[in-house]
Structure formats: C-alpha cells, structure tokens
Amino acid sequence: MAQSRLEKIGTIYSRVISLLKGKAMKEEDKPIWLAVYEAFPPKYEPRYDRQLPRKEIRPIFYEEDLIRVRFHKDQNFIPATNLANENVKSATQNFLSIYKTIKEQEELSENSVYEKAMQQYILEVETRMSKKVESKSSNIFT
C-alpha cells in the first residue's frame, strides 16, 4: 500500500482510490459502497480530525420508563424474549399493558396501581407456568 494504514492519513475512500489507481486492487475487487459513495458523497468528509458540532443532548424519557425501572428492580427473574416471534410480548410489555388497563379503569394513586398490576402480573405468570408444567407432565405419561 502506498500510504500508511493509519486512519489519520486520508479517508477510507482516498485509500481505496489510491489502491485502484496504483493497480494494487483489481477493478473487479472494487467495493460495492464505492459507487454509492461517489454517487452520493457526504456533505462533510469523514476524517478523524473533523470537529463535531456542539449540540445539546436532550434526555429522552418516556412516560412508562419509571414504571419499567421499578418493575425490573422488583422482579428477580424476567424470562428471555424470543425476538424472532413478533406476536409474543416481552414480560415488561405484558406488565405495562396490565398497568395501563388498571390505570385507565380505576382512579388510584401511582403506587396502588403499580401494586395491583404487579399482583395481577404475578398471578398470570403463575397460571402460565402451572399450565406448562401440567402439559409436560401429561406428555410424560402418555
């Protein structure tokens, strides 16, 4: 390579172009992104020493974030979620939906709504687990 391999000397684009011009890289080995980069060049050259704009980073909090935090602190076991199956909700999503329905139905304080939702969630988890145990035990004896 004619140039240093350090990222401080040139951009990845300039290094690949140099490799192509110097015949160190064959034309058929040219990366796919090169054509896209040439067709749509970035507004600012992506160099390591470029100064980033000073922008204020705003904190992003959602209404249910505090409830999620409390739920995760209170739960000692949260089952894994299969992300491939889009129809199945995570444990946190299940709890939040219970919480929201109780909050909409009844005029209670935040703490009492949370406690009631936690009781209902634990009941649902226990019934789900007992159904799984029953189905496994019936499969063993059949």
Quick structural summary:
The protein is mainly alpha-helical and 142 residues long.
Distance between the termini: 69 Å
Helix content bin: 40-55%
> For the residues shown, what is the average pLDDT?
85
Number of helices: 5
Largest sheet at a glance?
Answer: none
Structural class: mainly alpha
Beta strands, count: 0
Q: Please mark out the parts with pLDDT under 50 across 5 or more consecutive residues, or reply none.
A: none
User: Given the C-alpha coordinates, what overall shape results?
Assistant: elongated
Alpha carbon gyration radius: 28 Å
Strand content: under 5%
N-to-C series of helices and strands:
HHHHH
What does this structure look like?
There is one protein chain. With 142 residues, the chain is an all-alpha fold. It is 53% helix and 0% strand. It has five helices and no strands. Helix 4 crosses helix 5. The longest helix has 32 residues, at 110-141. It is elongated, with a radius of gyration of 28 Å. The termini are far apart. The model has no long low-confidence stretch (mean pLDDT 85).
